[in-house]
TrEMBL record:
Keywords: Membrane, Transmembrane, Transmembrane helix
Protein name, UniProt field: DUF1003 domain-containing protein
Region (Disordered): 126-168
Pfam families reported for this sequence: DUF1003
Keyword Secreted appears in the UniProt entry: no
Low complexity bias: start-end ranges: 131-151
Transmembrane spans: 38-58, 64-85
Length: 168
């Protein structure tokens, strides 16, 4: 399963490996993949240029009714292989999406459990601090040594209203 140039390769993804293994189990899938790979290559284009040129110059004269029939039949089959390739791509995308969904659900479940455990531990820590006689401050931090906060020198000064002037 070769990727187009400029397109990211999915061959390293576990879902891609699993998907390729399942496709390789069927001879029909392997044949369809080989035809699709060849039909999507420049070798296919060059081969047709040569074959059509030889046919038009050597095998049949204008208006080339047999060549028209062959090309029409080839177009029918190639369009079928294009549809097969699109179905394969859609099935791969579905499998990849399903796997990503399961992984995200697992991560969500794990994160929820971790968050609940953090909450439980925080509540237990708070309960133990209360039992020890420490009162948590508004910021959630217990006071050091259980002593009331003395404050800074600026906090001890009286506050002025916005219309009061400091006394000098």
């Amino acid at each position: 399963m070769a990727d187009a140039p400029g397109k990211p390769s999915h061959s390293h993804l576990p879902v891609a490996v699993e998907f390729a293994q399942r496709r390789a189990e069927s001879i029909q899938n392997r044949v369809a993949d080989a035809i699709t790979r060849f039909a999507g290559s420049m070798a296919f284009v060059y081969l047709h240029i040569v074959l059509f040129g030889v046919w038009m110059l050597v095998v049949e004269k204008s208006p080339w009714p047999t060549l028209t029939l062959v090309v029409s039949l080839e177009a029918i089959f190639l369009s079928t292989f294009v549809m097969i390739a699109q179905n394969r791509s859609a099935a791969f995308d579905d499998a990849k999406s399903e796997r990503e969904f399961r992984e995200q659900e697992t991560e969500l479940h794990t994160n929820t459990e971790i968050t609940q455990e953090i909450q439980r531990l925080t509540q237990e820590l708070h309960r133990r601090l209360i039992e020890q006689g420490g009162q948590p401050e508004q910021g959630g931090q217990p006071e050091q040594g259980g002593q009331p906060d003395q404050g800074t020198e600026n906090e001890k000064l009286p506050r002025l209203d916005s219309n009061q002037q400091p006394s000098g």
